[in-house]
Amino acid sequence: MSCSMFSLEGKTALITGGTQGLGLEFARALGRAGAEVVVTSRDLHKAEEAAAALTKETGKRAAGIALNVLEYAQIERAVSEVIEKFGHIDILINNAGVNVRKPILEYDEASWELVQGTNLKAPFLCAKAVVPHMIKRKFGRIINIASMLGTVALAERSAYCSSKGGLIQLTKVMALEWAEHNITANAVCPGPFATELNQIVMNNPEANQFFMNHLAIKRWGKPDELSGLLVYLASDASSFMTGSSIVIDGGWTAE
After folding, report:
1. What is the tally of structural domains in the chain?
2. For every one of its 255 residues, what pLDDT tens digit does the chain have, with 9 covering 90 and above?
3. Residue 105 · residue 60 · CB < 8 Å
4. Which domain covers residue 93, as residue numbers?
5. Residue 20 carries which DSSP code?
6. Are 138 and 22 in contact (CB under 8 A)?
7. Is 209 among the domain residues?
8. Cα–chain-centroid distance for residue 89?
9. Active-site entry in 72, 107, 160, 232
10. Residue 160 catalytic?
11. What is the pTM for the complete model shown?
């Protein structure tokens, strides 16, 4: 296999929630592999700031767009803007996510809807807006950022676990429906990674020790340890892979 199969030159990637944490690392990885990258955030300044940093670091064109992934009209406008500026969208990474930690009996409806909407509904809406353009070009890579908690559970994560489990299943349906158009869909299921989203756990000695007790590799993952997989899934090297869910979790689910 030639290394050129991992090149993303000439490709454009749209990454939701791509201004911090894992999303920003994904944007860096794809840019370094040759892709032009568009990142989104509810905060336009934050998105534009991240895009400028990406261009400076990778030398590739990047853009930042303001987007609430819970609003389909906004998603359609964002997709049209990307098409107008870059000509096409080859890679969609549904990365935007949120977690609210509460026992089930204390879980309020608004928190449930926020988590389910951001983690499960938004990837459905984004794919619905982007895929027609991919079908026209007979090429597409959809990468849904799920979680190891879509396959195993933790207490006080009812909405998160169920939303990520649903995203894994949604990924399989996407794979089946769009394979004939040369569009693949795969899910990445990270375990404990040292991101802003997990600071509340990392800073709690008791909770952090619980995580350490379940990790074969006795540390939190570093965001750049997902980069190689993202480039692979976005590239021609993964052309026969679709409908898969790949867990990278330091050995947690190997127990």
Report:
1. 1
2. 557 899 999 999 999 999 999 999 999 999 999 999 999 999 999 999 999 999 999 999 999 999 999 999 999 999 999 999 999 999 999 999 999 999 999 999 999 999 999 999 999 999 999 999 999 999 999 999 999 999 999 999 999 999 999 999 999 999 999 999 999 999 999 999 998 878 888 999 999 999 999 999 999 999 999 999 999 999 999 999 999 999 999 999 998
3. no
4. 4-193+224-248
5. S
6. no
7. no
8. 15
9. 160
10. yes
11. 0.96
